Amino acid sequence: MNKKKILITGGAGYIGSHTCVVLMQAGFEIVVLDNFCNSSEIALTRVKKIVGRDFKHYVLDVRDTDSLRNVFAVEKPFAVIHFAGLKSVNESIDQALNYYDNNIAGTLSLLKVMKESQVYKLIFSSSATVYQQSTIMPIAENSLLSACQPYGQSKLMIEEIIRDIVKVDANWQVAILRYFNPVGNHESGLIGEAPCGKPNNLLPLISQVASGELANLSIFGNDYPTLDGTGVRDYVHVMDLAKGHVAALQAIESWHEALPLTVNLGTGRGYSVLEMIHAFEAASAKVIPYKMVGRRAGDLAVCLADPSLAATLLDWQAKESIEKICADTWLWQSMNPQGYTEI
Ligand code: NAD
Ligand code: WQD
Prior knowledge:
This protein has a domain at 5-184 and 235-266: Rossmann fold (3-Layer(aba) Sandwich). Helix 1 links the parallel strand 1 and strand 2 (29-34). Helix 1 (14-25) packs parallel to helix 2 (41-51), helix 3 (65-75) packs parallel to helix 5 and helix 5 (96-116) packs parallel to helix 6 (150-168). Helix content is 40%, strand content 17%. The chain is of the alpha/beta class. The strands form four sheets. The protein has a seven-stranded parallel β-sheet with strand order 3-2-1-4-5-6-11, with helices on both faces. It is built from eleven helices and 14 strands. The structure holds nicotinamide-adenine-dinucleotide and UDP-4-deoxy-4-formamido-beta-L-arabinopyranose (WQD).
């Protein structure tokens, strides 16, 4: 039994809640910190139900440095997984200051308290959005970096901050994980992606069309140089992603190089929008009406991870199929048509 305590910021969110399950099932003790700005406390109740164990959580903004200090003093975490952040590319364009403040000031607050408390093990949630758009597919970690919207910029700036502090202080043991397109949910259907307001991402939109909540799906472009003209992405099951965090926690303990361990978490295999629709129709036995509309500004034709470094350094590989992703998503949607409500 591994009794190491992991502090999970943003642990009530989509990826955080699934990582809570996987960490507890791997024997870790956890403590969650979240201000619930994009999540529900019910997610944490559901995590406890899945695992059959209790844990503590703090309703706290990670930018509240004094309160954060108290949490570290009381909990004495072994390591931190930092999910807390705002994540919508579109919203970040209209709310740039809010995104920079939340994501960057939040991370600075956390890093300061970690250093003061001598907690140097950190896993940071980064994104494929930090890669320069013209890069060669599949994307390897040493590809050129640049972001063209505030959300991506905030992730890139945080990565740079981490690289700077790690370079001059050998105590830090940090992993930067660059997620591709996280999808799916725990197979119980008890936890899943519950975006506040209308979702932006493809799978939550498809499932809302399947359940009748939305009339149809707009496909953003069918003239890309792909197999059927629609955009291709690297969809990775969130349970696989969650396991990547446990693998990263194990890996950073033996990682003493001057740079943070930086890896892609993706599958290396792409699916088009039409392929996703057809897979979801098969899983749900529903018809997904769609209409073709113009390309969405800023979209790439194809975005795929080169996942080989994660296999080498973390001994991690995504395992779940697109059929499983769609079946799990449909179960979550059917059991929770209004997102998280008391049951
Ligand atoms: P999410 O919005 O579901 O979870 C984020 C959680 O952080 C929420 O529970 C929110 O309430 C909390 N939070 C936000 N700001 C906070 C603050 N200042 N103090 C305390 N809590 C705060 O998002 P997610 O999909 O689970 O993403 C988790 C992380 O992974 C984010 O940092 C996101 O940028 C990154 N990421 C997500 C994706 C994706 O497509 N989901 C892809 C790449 C990277
Ligand atoms: C997937 C595909 C769309 C909606 C985003 C962020 C990225 C990361 C993951 C955080 C694309 C198409 C979508 C719709 C459509 N998040 N689509 N109709 O854009 O690959 O990545 O989420 O870090 O940073 O940019 O994901 O789910 O929005 O789109 O046709 O209504 O579905 O054009 O080809 P994306 P997505």
